[in-house]
Amino acid sequence: MEAAQGFIEEYKLLECIQCGVCTGSCPVSAKAGLNIRQLMREIKLNGRVEIPPEEVLWSCTTCSTCETRCPKELSPYEVLVGMRGITVEEGKVSATVRDALESVFKHGNPWDRARAKRSEWAEGLDVPAFTEDTELLFYVGCTSAYDPRCQETARALVSIFSAAGIDFGTLGNEESCCGDSVYGMGEKGLFEMLVEDNTELFEGRGVKRMVTASPHCFNAFKNRYGDPGFEAQHYTQLLATLIDEGKLALTGRFEKTVTYHDPCFLGRQNDVYDEPRKVLEAVPGLSFVELDRSRERSLCCEGGGGRMWMEVPGERLAEKRIRGAVEVGAEVIATACPFCLSTLEDAVLTAGLEGSIEVMDIAEIVAKAL
Ligand code: SF4
Ligand code: SF4
């Protein structure tokens, strides 16, 4: 009873007019049987929080389409995050989710990798350590630091920053998870701990400006850290500014037809739509085509909200995305997020389209045109 009252107040459930726009616009509603409108209604009607089956509860990617479309400006997916919090507290989560959360607590990353290996991606590169005199912190993020495919984005960014003469540095093995996926998994206690520890670390090191490789880290720092005393940017924003100011000269050519997949946490969550396109369009030789569903209507890749650690049966949305990119004649589908990069690349294989299309991060394309 108490939980229901808390949910009604926290998520403003009395303001919901039951229009169903949230469920109608939810990209996983049909495949996973997720009816967010109904779940909200039941809490109000029954006076208790009834948790749906695991495959329904964890199907939400926190893509925020429901929030963007809700005429009452509610955040329906936060109700699901709240429900996940109850299951986490009760220990009723799958082993993959539990292990990811434990790994964040123990090692500062959800990939069960040693902290001492966090900066291995930079071996052989000249990556400066951040000091109090450094202008810009390059916050690499867990996936770009540890995932061999996504490490290529981190390396590409280093070559771009160096070419543009930016005074940047990283925190090396001291860097810890931003907590974005932890929040999406409902472990708000662990998330608060990360906010506190990271804020203390950044303050202690004198961080005033940072650039992130991932939209998830950018979103966490910008929207979920309160007023942390530093400014966070996604790298596409920084690159667009450098191009505008004539500080990033792209002289190489990239002669391919490229489309762009808007990551949910960059586009819908933060309205960063123009900068990634501006960067791609500045690449000599590149021919840009839009996907049928782009910008606010972009289709989620299913990598957010902890879904990297939870498989939901049914056709993957990332496969639809890849088919859409092939249909518009793209040779490359570009994105600007490590989760999108991984899910889209997997989808090329599972959709049987190997050899038809390539998945690249925008940073990799820019690095080829330096
Ligand atoms: S879109 Fe908003 S108002 Fe409409 S049912 Fe969903 S939460 Fe309620
Ligand atoms: S955040 Fe996205 S996946 Fe989750 S309920 Fe809303 S629309 Fe559906």
User: Gyration radius, to the nearest Å?
Assistant: 20 Å
**What is the average per-residue confidence, as pLDDT, rounded to a whole number?**
95
Measured as a percent range, the helix fraction is 40-55%
Order of strands across the main sheet:
2-1-3-4
Low-confidence stretches: none
- Major sheet description: 4 strands, parallel
How would you describe the shape? Answer: globular
Approximately how much beta-strand content do the residues carry? 5-15%
- In total, the number of domains comes to 3
Q: Would you report the number of β strands?
A: 8
**H and E order:** HHHHHHHHEHHEHHEHEHEHEHEHEH
What small-molecule ligands were found?
A: iron/sulfur cluster
Q: Tell me the number of helical segments per DSSP (H or I, 4 or more residues long).
A: 18
Q: Which structural class best describes the helix and strand composition?
A: alpha/beta
Distance between the termini: 60 Å
Structure notes:
With 370 residues, this protein is an alpha/beta fold. It folds into three domains: 2-89, Fumarate Reductase Iron-sulfur Protein, Chain B, domain 2, CATH 1.10.1060.10; 95-241, no CATH class; 248-368, 3-Layer(aba) Sandwich (Rossmann fold), CATH 3.40.50. 45% of the residues lie in helices and 8% in strands. It has helices at 2-10, 21-25, 29-32, 36-46, 54-57, 65-69, 76-89, 95-107, 142-146, 148-163, 180-184, 188-205, 215-223, 235-244, 274-281, 317-327, 338-350, 362-368; strands at 136-139, 168-169, 209-212, 231-234, 257-260, 287-288, 332-335, 358-361. The protein has a four-stranded parallel β-sheet. Strand 5 (257-260), helix 15 (274-281) and strand 6 form a beta-alpha-beta unit. Helix 10 packs across helix 18 and helix 14 (235-244) packs across helix 15 (274-281). The mean pLDDT is 95. The structure holds iron/sulfur cluster (SF4) (2 copies). Residues 26-28, 36, 60-66, 76-77 line the site of one iron/sulfur cluster. One iron/sulfur cluster (SF4) is lined by residues 16-22, 37, 40, 70-72, 74, 76.
